[in-house]
Request: fold
Amino acid sequence: MSDNTAQLKGQQRDGDTSPGVAGYVDVHAHLIHDDFAGEEDAVASRARSAGLDLVIVNGLEPKSNRAVLELCGRHEHLQPALGIYPVDAIGTRIDHASWQHPFPPPAVFDVDEEIDFIASVASQLIAIGECGLDRYWITSEMAEQERVLRRLCEVALAHDLPVILHSRKAELRTFEILQDMGVERADFHCFGGKLKLAKRIADAGYYLSIPPVVVRAESFQRMAAALPLDRILTETDCPYMGPDKGTRNEPANVPRGVQAIAEARGAEEHAVRHQIRANARALFGF
Ligand SMILES: [Zn+2]
Reply:
């Protein structure tokens, strides 16, 4: 008996009437990244073979935003989300000469022009993001980070799109801004805040997406066990946050993440996968 046949029989036993086997989803991937250069289409194909029927490819600044649109145009299971990464949002305002982080300094571009561009292609998008606040890499320019996040939330609201959020070391403030602006559809990606706040965010109706690093990261295992299953999504944040330390992550690793989430909850993998697929459909309409 093939895997698929076994899964279908399992669904019938569960009384599941939805068509086919639930696929896996990656709601936050960076396939436009130097680590994937020239391999984007192969990585997309491997994702499909691994059972993913939705990979949301997130842009960060003008260059990746345009490349995301182009790549997603070639694959039906790849869907574009465009945004401005909070560190890139303040690229014109920080001192590049004294940049000391282990990655290149942010892109320099006209942020408001880029927001206008994102709005102009909104009908092609599945979400707005990556966007948000970052107090981990940059502790200055929070007012400008907030201004850019608010403008991107306005685009999302105007076009009835969900928002995919970065909230590193600024989780509560990001949550407050969503509430303040009346944003109802959002996913907090790679949430690193306190479990209590994660539960509050879930109670407010937002989703939290868990990366495959959950196979070895206790903080994500605790989150996977404690959050209501109908508020959990899966992502990769690839090339980062992979299941194997020091190894490039990619969407095909999502099934390992789902398995770890199921184990953390003491639940059946099939049931967890099915609910996560339904959650993605509820948030993104895909
Ligand atoms: Zn990201």
